[in-house]
Design a protein that fits this description.
Helix content: 40-55%
Strand content: 15-25%
Bound molecules: D-glutamic acid
Radius of gyration: 18 Å
Strand order of the largest sheet: 4-3-1-2-9-10
Length: about 270
């Protein structure tokens, strides 16, 4: 049973656009509805209860848009809240988590860095994936491995403001990324969907490291292409963008991040 209903994509803010653009590239004919909870961000510095309550609101909004699948384009929301929605809703729900396995597979120095929010790094879901990945590396890689976790408060706010390369951004990166370079880290996981928009700035602090953005892998998941999600339509899909606290400044940031000066941002509530 195919359906031309849209796919709903959510994040605490505009970071999820890094996932949305990968989905758009992977499945060009699907209609997308993107919901950014900008007015209530960041999620990553808030409690699990706060995040769960906000997710109830954002998911309800997307369900009212008749979505046929949900993408949690937010590592923090996936870590804290995805399980409850999967237990309750029968539609496909796709999440994103820090790409620890690919980083451990590719490292030559044995040192990898994970940039993510505080809440992601403290979560049980991340602890589990980290543990499994290290166990795998211990038997599969010829060298000892070290995973350096770096919570990065303040970084997502830079992206939300449309600030990608200012002195303020670099001050934060001196704190978060320079120590990884000192530890000889050669693979850095962008474990928050906002960080791919800072890749250029991050690379200046870790010029020899590979930055891993998990978004393309998420977008290529068979669950998105299969499960009868393919639309009968052959025309390019459309995108609609919503945010809590939608205003002209946020619309301007959306236009920059989506690389389209014509897109509009509508209020979510
Ligand atoms: N973009 C979100 C993530 O991938 C979190 C940003 C935040 O709200 O703290 O974790």
């Amino acid at each position: 049973m195919s359906s031309n209903r849209p796919i709903g994509i959510l994040d605490s803010g505009f970071g999820g656009l890094s996932v949305a653009r990968a989905i758009r590239a992977a499945i060009p004919n699907e209609d997308l509805v993107f919901a950014a909870d900008c007015a209530y961000a960041p999620y990553g510095d808030n409690s699990s209860e706060y995040i769960q309550a906000r997710l109830e609101h954002v998911v309800s909004f997307l369900l009212a848009q008749q979505v046929k699948a949900l993408v949690f384009a937010c590592n923090t929301a996936t870590a804290v809240g995805i399980r409850a929605f999967r237990a309750r809703l029968s539609m496909p729900i796709i999440g994103i988590e820090p790409a620890v396995f690919p980083a451990l597979r590719h490292t030559r120095t044995g040192h990898i860095g994970i940039l993510a929010t505080c809440r992601t790094i403290e979560s049980q879901k991340y602890a589990d994936v980290r543990h499994r990945a290290i166990e795998w590396a211990e038997v599969s890689r010829p060298m000892p491995v070290t995973v350096w976790d770096v919570p990065c408060p303040g970084l997502m706010e830079c992206v939300e403001r449309g600030d990608f390369d200012s002195a303020n951004v670099h001050e934060l990166l001196v704190r978060y990324v320079d120590p990884l370079t000192a530890h000889n880290v050669d693979e850095i996981v962008l474990g928050c969907t906002h960080y791919p928009f800072l890749a250029h700035a991050i690379a200046k602090h870790a010029p020899k490291a590979t930055l891993i953005d998990p978004a393309p892998a998420v977008a290529q998941q068979r669950r998105l292409a299969a499960l009868d999600l393919a639309t009968p339509q052959t025309a390019p899909g459309t995108e609609r963008f919503f945010a809590s606290g939608a205003d002209a400044a946020r619309e301007a940031v959306l236009r920059t991040l989506w690389s389209d000066p014509r897109v509009r941002l509508y209020e979510m509530d």
